[in-house]
Amino acid sequence: MTTRVFTSPLFLGFDHLEQMIERAAKNSSDGYPPYNIEQLSPVSLRITLAVAGFTMDDLQITLEDNQLVIRGRQTDEGHGRVFLHRGIAARQFQRAFVIAEGIEVKGAWLDNGLLHVDLVRPVPQPVVKTIPIVRGQGKVPAPTRTVDGD
Hints:
150 residues, mainly beta, Immunoglobulin-like, 4-stranded antiparallel beta sheet, 1 helix, 9% helix
């Protein structure tokens, strides 16, 4: 089901935002693995996933079209072990987070069954563009860019 958010003709070029919202709605249905999102500072975030039983080799993190995708796949090799009861399943997962343009993944680490992924949102510099007005249907000159405050 498609939900149109930016229906006003004044919102130009926001189609990609609607697609991101739809992707996020699809990805939010499964609750495994559980996760936290922390704001560490005004420009940094941390996603923490509970991935007990997974090793670094079992986990993969990729950035695909403004989507941070974290996959976990445990190999179900017994390594000679015989289970009398197996309550901890070797369950695979895929957890995706839609992130805004400009957000950078700074790093990830695994510690005591928790996978931490740090993100940073650089502070954008305000940009002012001057658009020249020309007479008639002549060639349109390129806009000039200046950084606000310079």
